[in-house]
Amino acid sequence: xxxxxxxxxxxxxxxxxxxxxxxxxxxxxxxxxxxxxxxxxxxxxxxxxxxxxxxxxxxxxxxxxxxxxxxxxxxxxxxxxxxxxxxxxxxxxxxxxxxxxxxxxxxxxxxxxxxxx
Length: 117
What we know:
This protein is an alpha+beta fold. The protein is 24% helix and 18% strand. It has helices at 36-49, 89-102; strands at residues 15-20, 58-63, 74-78, 82-85.
């Protein structure tokens, strides 16, 4: 996955993973209450140390509310539009190793399709 030509046609990156880091001030549940920032930071370190970051590879992005709060904390991988709910660092490690590195969806971490806000 280190060849920039592996990225989808017209795309600068092969994949993006967006982490919801939204924090609600009114006390409603949100991803920030579930250590989403730490998961984002951990993912960035893993992607970089695995040599997966940069053009034609993977970009780890922050996002505001992704409106899937009931499944939180959540992250979504594009261009596949695969939504993940994670609990801990091991889940992030599995997403990086399986999906971001090998292109294999981690079925056990998929956010149920019906879960929204």
